Description:
The protein has 166 residues and is mainly α. It has helices at residues 2-16, 46-63, 69-81, 85-98, 103-119, 122-132, 136-149, 154-164, and strands at residues 31-33, 43-45. A two-stranded antiparallel sheet has the order 1-2.
Amino acid sequence: xxxxxSFYIFIAAAIMGxxxxxxxxxxxxxxxxxxxxxxADKIYKLDDFDYELQQxxxxxxxxxxxxESMGAVRTGDVYFDKGEIGEAIYFYxxxxxxxxxxxxxxxxxxxxKKIMKQSTxxxxxxxxxxxxKGMKKKAIDELVLExxxxxxxxxxxxxxxxxxxx
Length: 166
């Protein structure tokens, strides 16, 4: 009888939010453990990743004085015209994040992604995507693989040096 009474008290407390957990609304960290391949027992906290990505976006927006979505699109256009498609894609993503209903940003993003896939190797494309998401270590790994396959790829070498110097 005592166990049943305790069970009802626990249920009532959970309903009222007195028991910590999802109902309490605390911070949630998703932790991913990698298995036996590679870096065993490393823990990646997605909150840290999210913070680094947001920090990079804020720094880029300050540097380019971006205050609205079309400003990010124009900055992306500057990079696109210079042939730096990966950076253009990054700024088109910022434009979409600022204003998800901006059709120009979506069109330019899709167009730039198509051009990148046609003109670059899979390793380089993945590296740029990882870098845009703030995943520097994975971007470096992909660039190293690209340079092993194509040692003459100066664009990949320059991007690797840029990422490593940050």
